[in-house]
Design brief:
One of its GO terms (molecular function) is aspartate-semialdehyde dehydrogenase activity. It catalyses: L-aspartate 4-semialdehyde + phosphate + NADP(+) = 4-phospho-L-aspartate + NADPH + H(+). It is a single chain. The chain is an alpha/beta fold. Helices cover about 30% and strands about 20% of the residues. The chain has 9 helices and 14 strands. A hairpin with a 2-residue loop joins strand 3 and strand 4. Helix 1 packs across helix 9 and helix 4 crosses helix 9. About 50% of the residues are buried.
């Protein structure tokens, strides 16, 4: 029997995540028949290399998806809003890295280590979660399975690249300017369209995305509701309480998170038991030896697909409660690798097909 091969398109191919989608696809198990690179008119004509073959980036149009089986999208929310339904109409399955489809009830929000089974009910679009949510649920899922999960309080330390290539470049420029005794220029962070911008170099910004009316940022809102949808199947689930604070830090790549969590009572949860569960979990690397000063660091996580966990310890003031430190490459597991990993599972499970009538849901 001849192995099926796939015609694949990458939407948003020239961005920080898009270029990593190419490299992750190149290293994946997906049998690629052809690859089409799509972006805005501004980027059309650029040359990129895939498996030794030079490809020309094309301007994305609805007809770009004719004959495509699988779309890996990282072009931003408005781009995915416009083009994902067009791709589905033409028979392509879309794995989308933007925030636009994540809370749609017709779209599964998937981290393969946590809720791969949700892929079986897809309607042609699968959403990739927020980068900070992804690494946290990878670390929490082994705990939930072994000891239950009642409450999560997270504080994030998120890298500049989480706001895009331009924010990363601005951090470098600000650092160079500060070191040269020059004025730091800020045009992007904390939010590109905001009235005020602040430098990230030598600074911390306790705002990621816009503020909601309740005082939480939209990034914090996303972490709360995405966690509930991924782990409990309902973005408003009452099965777990989740809250957090998201902070941008002057690190190029790699998000860090301090996670406080409460397990179910009478489950016998201990720090050693949680470490054992984490050490056996897919996609997790336990780095936890305080005596030898071994713990996860963004610098070491960069370029790696795994989620790194350390500093696992009990909360000394609250029963059944623990802390851990979680680090991952936000451009890989937080974005490009999780997207390609979803695509791999779709291929392995023979789910690269759009169900009849699915296009009408979008």
């Amino acid at each position: 029997m001849t192995e099926r091969t796939y015609n694949i398109a990458i939407l948003g191919a020239t961005g920080a995540v898009g270029t990593r989608l190419m490299s992750q696809l190149e290293e994946s198990t997906i049998p690629v028949n052809s690859l089409k690179l799509l972006a805005s008119a501004r980027s059309a004509g650029k040359k990129l290399t895939f498996k030794g073959q030079e490809l020309t980036v094309e301007e994305a149009t609805p007809d770009s998806f004719n004959g495509i089986d699988l779309v890996l999208a990282s072009g931003g929310g408005s781009v995915s809003q416009r083009f994902a339904p067009e791709a589905v109409k033409r028979g392509a399955v879309v794995v989308d890295n933007s925030s636009f489809w994540r809370m749609n009830d017709n779209v599964p929000l998937v981290v393969p280590e946590v809720n791969e089974a949700d892929l079986k009910g897809h309607n042609g679009i699968i959403a990739n979660p927020n980068c900070s949510t992804t690494q946290m649920v990878v670390a929490l899922e082994p705990v939930r399975r072994a000891f239950g999960l009642r409450r999560v309080i997270v504080s994030t330390y998120q890298a500049a690249s989480g706001a895009g290539q331009s924010a990363w470049e601005e951090l470098v420029a600000q650092t160079n300017a500060h070191n040269a005794g020059e004025k730091m220029v800020a045009n992007i962070l904390p939010v590109k369209g905001a009235d005020k911008h602040y430098p990230l170099a030598y600074n911390l910004l306790p705002q990621i995305d816009v503020f909601e009316d309740d005082g939480y940022t939209h990034e914090e809102w996303k972490m709360i509701h995405e966690t509930k949808k991924i782990m409990f199947g309902d973005k408003n689930s009452k099965s777990v309480k989740v809250t957090g604070t998201a902070v941008r830090v002057p690190v190029p790549v790699g998000h860090g998170e301090t996670v406080y969590f409460e397990t179910a009572p009478n489950t016998g949860a201990t720090a050693a038991g949680i470490q054992e569960a984490l050490s056996q979990a897919p996609g997790v690397i336990l780095e936890d030896n305080p005596k030898e000063q071994i713990y996860p660091q963004p610098l070491n996580a960069e370029g790696k697909r795994e989620t790194f966990v350390g500093r696992v310890r009990p909360d000394l003031e609250n029963d059944d409660s623990f802390h851990m430190w979680v680090v991952s490459d936000n451009l890989l597991k937080g974005a490009a690798w999780n997207t390609v990993q979803i695509a791999e599972r779709l291929v392995d499970l023979d789910l690269v097909r759009v169900p009849v009538g699915a296009a009408s849901k979008f």
